[in-house]
Amino acid sequence: MELLEQLSRQKVMNRETLQNFYQDFMQMLYAQMNEEGRALGSIYATSEAMELYQSATRSVRQMQDLIHYTMGRLEEDREPEEMLRDILTVTPERVVEAAKTVRLDTVYFLTGKEEGDNG
């Protein structure tokens, strides 16, 4: 979450940056869970968890909530530092392999005005 906070403090966080951060986080998480033979649904099994999952790109705070919740769920089985280290050391090759096993079931479109957009 340090990178997320740093981007926010530097005022370089916008909708696109937050969406990219979310996608990168989820790709790393998918890759790690796939390697362990675990389903992502085991983390986001409740309606409250799904709401966190689906709304994470609405604000930096909601993205932080998703990360905190996710890491908390993962620490039930492993030490948080170990899991975070594993997620942060995911290679592009592992992400590609995991992506081959994922099937898109929902597409979300973000709408609204960017900061400074007068149209």
Quick tags:
119 residues; mainly alpha; 6 helices; 60% helix; globular
**Number of domain units:** 1
Main beta sheet strand tally, sense and closure: none
**Helical region count?**
6
Helix content: 55-70%
Mean pLDDT: 77
By DSSP, the count of extended strands is: 0
- Give start-end ranges of low-pLDDT stretches: none
Give the termini distance in whole angstroms: 33 Å
In words, what does this structure look like?
With 119 residues, this protein is mainly α. It has one domain (2-99). The chain contains six helices and no strands. Helix 3 packs across helix 4 (60-74). It is globular and about 50 Å long.
Strand and helix layout:
Blueprint lengths: L1 H8 L5 H22 L10 H9 L4 H15 L5 H9 L3 H8 L20
Quick structural gist:
The protein contains 6 helices and no strands. Helix 2 packs across helix 6 and helix 3 crosses helix 4.
